[in-house]
């Protein structure tokens, strides 16, 4: 049976995630992109291979139709392109355009500044311990 600390851990983790994303959204507000749009751009920029629309949806954690609408607007802004996949006519690869690169660079810079601010004063050993705990929780979830 979960104890009070288990409950607090989960609630704190959820609050941390929402607050972190909210602060990044606040810092990126001047770019004129919704959180969903800059998140898609950031995921695209960090993926090692050009993803299909389905792979990108999984990475971002949204349903296919939701991502399709986001990509429509990003495509209208000239920030992404959809390319056909010869071996699967239904699949589309998603690439960033040259126009997106300065925006991606600014998102990354602001994101790194936020990381520096958020991790100020946190000892490396404490961070390692936290990462081990999070990984164990993730491993337990994977087995559930």
Automatic annotation (TrEMBL):
InterPro entries: HTH_MarR-typ (IPR000835), Tscrpt_reg_MarR-type_CS (IPR023187), WH-like_DNA-bd_sf (IPR036388), WH_DNA-bd_sf (IPR036390). SMART domains: HTH_MARR. Keywords: DNA-binding, Transcription, Transcription regulation. It comes from the Bacteria. The keyword Transcription regulation applies. Residues 6-139 form the HTH marR-type domain. The keyword DNA-binding applies. This is MarR family transcriptional regulator. It comes from Stutzerimonas tarimensis.
